[in-house]
User: Which sequence fits this backbone?
């Protein structure tokens, strides 16, 4: 039985590859380029799962989508929950918060902001509710990374695997910098020095530099 990770270039499926590299497990890696006409996933990747988007994994007869679900599945099945603190661990609640905050709030804010900017090109940073929520989210991230070495606390957890994409690759769509968040910038430097992260990046985005500044 072979675990296969399907990665779409410049997408959140990098999370899954990074986790596999951190765990040091055997897996088959398949990379797909975005379509030239609309920058979306090619039909062969969309056909793998009804969600029609990356990431997708196949593990025997199982085909699974959704990055959070995939990361938890892989860590539980292949990693003995190495990146999921147990309830008796003092980092348990922080890990849970940031793991779910990533796509539930932080990434949602960014996507809303991006969509509003595309709807009104003359206003790339829309004011009001969305901008306020986004600013608060970044402030919360900066505060957290001034308090702890990792989002989940004292060690790398799935919370970090999920959040780093939002702070790096996802920013390419909005062209934002990290000039005003030194704790976040220092954190990403530490992450970028991890051999597993470097191996992931070389596989996922060959020839491109990670967005760390």
Assistant:
């Amino acid at each position: 039985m072979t675990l296969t990770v399907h990665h779409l270039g410049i997408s959140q499926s990098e999370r899954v590859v990074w986790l596999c590299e951190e765990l040091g497990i055997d897996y088959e890696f398949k990379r797909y380029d975005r379509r030239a006409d609309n920058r979306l996933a090619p039909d062969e990747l969309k056909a793998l799962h009804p969600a029609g988007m990356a990431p997708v994994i196949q593990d025997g007869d199982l085909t699974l989508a959704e990055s959070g679900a995939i990361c938890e599945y892989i860590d539980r099945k292949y990693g003995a929950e190495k990146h999921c603190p147990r309830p008796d661990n003092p980092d348990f609640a922080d890990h849970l918060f940031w793991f779910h905050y990533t796509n539930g709030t932080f990434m949602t804010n960014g996507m809303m902001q991006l969509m509003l900017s595309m709807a009104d090109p003359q206003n790339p940073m829309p004011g009001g509710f969305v901008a306020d929520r986004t600013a608060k989210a970044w402030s919360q991230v900066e505060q957290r990374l001034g308090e702890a070495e990792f989002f989940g606390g004292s060690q790398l957890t799935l919370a970090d695997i999920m959040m780093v994409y939002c702070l790096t690759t996802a920013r390419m769509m909005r062209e934002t910098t990290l000039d005003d968040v030194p704790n976040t910038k220092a954190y990403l430097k530490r992450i970028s020095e991890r051999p597993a992260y470097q191996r992931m990046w070389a596989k996922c985005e060959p020839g491109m530099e990670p967005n760390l500044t």
